[in-house]
Amino acid sequence: MGRGQQRGHDEDQNDEKFEVPWRVSLTGPRVPCNAYNSPVTAPDFAHVTFISAGAGSGKTYRLTEELEAALVEGGVNPAGVIGTTFTVKAAGELKERVRERLIASGRPERAEQMAQALIGTVHSVCERLLKRFAFELGLSPKLDVMSLADGQRFFNQALDEVLDIERVRVMNQLAFRLGQDNWQTAVKDVADKVRENDLGKADLAAMGRDSAAALLDFFPTPLGHDPQPALIDAVSEAIAAINLNHDTTKGAAKYERLLRQSIYQLRRPDCPWSVWIKLSAETTTAKTEHVAAPVREAAAAYAAHQDFHADIRAYTEGVLEIAGLALKRFQALKTEAGLIDFSDMEQLTLHALDDPTITNRLADELELLLVDEFQDTNPMQLALFVKLAQLADRVILVGDVKQAIYAFRGCDPDLVFETLDALTQGDAKSSKLENSWRSRPALVYYVNEVFAAAFAADEIARDNVTLEPVREEMTGEPAVLRWDIAGGNKRERAGSLAQGIADLVTTGYLISDPESGDPRPVRWGDIAVLSRTNANVETIARTLKDQRVPMKMTLEGLFAVPEVCLAKACLRRLNDFTDTLATAEIMALADSAEPETWLADRLTFLAAEEDPTRWAEAGHPIIRRLKELRPGTALASPVEIVARVLNDVGVRQAATGWGPDAIKAAQRQRNLDAFLNLAVEYENHCEGQHEAATLTGFLFWVEHPNSPELDLQPVVTSGDAVHVLTYHRAKGLEWPVVIATDFERDERTSLWNVRVNLTADFDVAAPLAHRSIRFWPNPFGNRTKNLPTLDRIMASAEGRECAAKHASEGRRLAYVGMTRARDALVIALPEKEPGESAWLQTFASDFVLPMDGTLALPDGQTIDTRVRAYDGAGATPDPLAFTPRWFQPRPRRDDIPREGLSPSAAEPIEGAGIGEIIELGERITLSGGDMTAIGSGLHAVIAAELVNPNQKDAVKRAWAILTSYGVAAFIAAADAMEAARRFREAVEERFKPKQILVEYPVTEARDDGRLVRGWIDVLVETEAGWVIIDHKSSPRPKSEWEHEVQEYSGQLAAYAGAVAHSGWPVVEMWIHFPVTGGLVRLALPGRE
After folding, report:
1. Which tens digit of pLDDT belongs to each residue from 823-856?
2. Which residue segments constitute the domains of the chain, with CATH numbers given?
3. CA distances from 1009 to 896, 907, 1057, 1063 (A)
4. Could you read off the pLDDT of 653-694 as tens digits, one per residue?
């Protein structure tokens, strides 16, 4: 039933009126409002329920319950369900759990119907909707979706095509002077925001002018003269005035060096503005301060320099203008290639929901819309959900605003919060999951109090933060630990962290086993280390590896690891046997041979005056196997070749033998699996680009990857090893022990990112309306002090709002990380106290950092804590014992042909001939055309007559069949029907058939290992046995029937062998010539 029809379910009487105090408010009491403090109006959303699911509260279980209840109690048809999840894995898990519950409750039919439900990621749902309504939308039902890497390549091509060399030169100069690292990245960021917010028709040039004007409003009015000569004079005088004999401090010497470097740059026409900015803010020692003051005063004129204003305006406007040009060409390139990307799918689906034909059909069908991880939707997806919600009978939105952490992926938490605000005006209902099923009570109480206080800054009510623990305390161990880690740099601190992890394991910290619940000592695999950035993750992981602490994480450098280098060398040698460098790499890697060893072998080989390209083919097992493999790869695909090289020549075995432990050996195998997956991705890339996939192309592709994602090593999912990953990647996961790091990291504002601003009141019915791009380049770099203009910018309403948003996201990210822990949360901090701008300060309170012994929480609870200090000087753990193991070699039988056998390719049988001829009538007339197509058409007409004989419209049916094969112009439908009729009558008269089978498939496994596969045109069962008849639409005269019977004797004999092998006796074999009008029996030697 649609939204306009009677609902087929009862409303949940336990749901409450929806109040959403989610959004950041800088001042004043919380009221449902939009960005302009205007009341929000909304359509009727009484059928919408938002389920607030805090971390560890059993969200998946509740989703399963809701869907099962809708299907069973609410009478919802599975075909009327649309559900979106954040990952493919989550979608599969949801469907499988519902199926299991339906089967367990005695509803197997309903469980089977779950395949009709449209449940998947947003992109998969969009793809299926677009395919369904392809004709209404004027699209091809076959959607070729490009990968993210190909999308980046296409955009780069578009950017290259719309820019001439002069425009590039100008933008490079502007970027250099303003200190912008990569203006092309800024263009891509703008383009992404445009597409994420469906601003395709927006005037980006006007937005560029507005952005530049808004930024320049904070700067002084431009001067009417050039202040550069005055600055050069001030710097020159300062250099002359500095007396390093009088002021011997390092500070004075450093300032003098700065002045000398600056005077050189100031005299250049392309002097970067950072020189002015630095001189305007730089201070020095007390003895030399009188020299620095005039320099600062002269340099401060940069803020009013007319060239500085012009550069900011030209750069800002240029970035947005170029983004608009590139987007237009980008779309054209995709259209020319017949490709779409993920954003296109969302946009096309969103616009499709403006078509009344489509919305009316969906409104009639859509009974339940289920959205998981609602807080992580991007603007386009949110608009899509709002439209679908207005078509559905019932809507369930599940999420947790406290876990909205994917702004860097295009999600817009503010837009989600605005939407949740607006839902209150439509009588939407809410339901909160009250219990924590993940963490032990002490951790639940700690997180409750820390974040009830922290989220007060975001005006999130305490009741929407706190959970009640379900688990019981089992171990008596402290739940919250603080580690003070020593070290002057990240690497040294990572060493201290490794020491703490080893200490935790070796001292036998007790946890509750996640499976049984029983207490046991912690293992390596129970521990996860979370860090803020990929770079920090890599530093920690490599340090753990050096300290012999087993770890697993996604590291960069897949193409550089030895096992993949060996695989690439084998492929190069296979592709070109003259590549002796590849041969040398194989010998060096596979045998762990020093250069002196293989080089001596090479020189000895050359001295013997052998063919230099045949080096090691006889003696080295891998190279010998590659030589044997080469003939069979001529027609193989890259995936097949890579699989054979990895599995058949000894690459995997060699990689496992390198060890040095079981975890690393497993990692090597996963790396090789990832390399094989890259071959699959390469073939998909070629298919999408309509290019041929070759081994040479694959080797070039991996040597020049178009995305850094291709160079990532996969995580080993089994084995006892510490997990190291970012906070963002940890979302949705859990571990007994979580070590949270980087809380000392300085937070920065999002002011200088590409942003989207509202230009009018928010409208929940059109959430993407009234939105505009805001882009401000940051000319100040990392400098933040002694810059009055920057202070004005940061103190502005826009500056404060961006700082508040960034701090809010930091709190949410901390909440996600700290709620991953089941039994213990470790807060690892450097010995030095975090600064005022540290991440910790965004959610700090008096009780965040534990003290040794106990910690009293504001709610009256007292939890056990522990503080430890580590300096990285502990003993390195002993290496794990490792004995390489590999599969036993399987005996190889080279005498078995691997290829299958097609009956039509069988050799003629010597001595075969005609045993009998039945004349069927006159030859039918052909008027040219392709005989293969004509034969297929005749086959189909005859089959139709045998299956449905004597039909009144048989000639019309024959014409339709011949037309579908494109041969109706070359053979008359009446003639084809006559050929079919006379054949049927002859078969009935001669064989008195018990049954007639047409296009009958047969398969026979022969003793030599080959499979015979084919389709018999006509198989007739008679009293005596089975008769095989094969149609041959040859136009050759009757005088050549003898030759044709001989030619096809092997094919019929192969059919007969397959049928006889199944236990059906074959008594006769015939060839039917429908064109020339004959039925000829095949006579084989010894069978007449």
Report:
1. 999 999 998 888 888 899 888 888 888 888 888 8
2. 40-143+341-433 (3.40.50.300), 146-200+214-219+259-339 (no CATH), 468-554+720-870 (3.40.50.300), 558-711 (1.10.486), 903-1083 (3.90.320.10)
3. 6, 18, 15, 20
4. 888 888 787 778 888 889 999 999 999 999 988 887 788 999
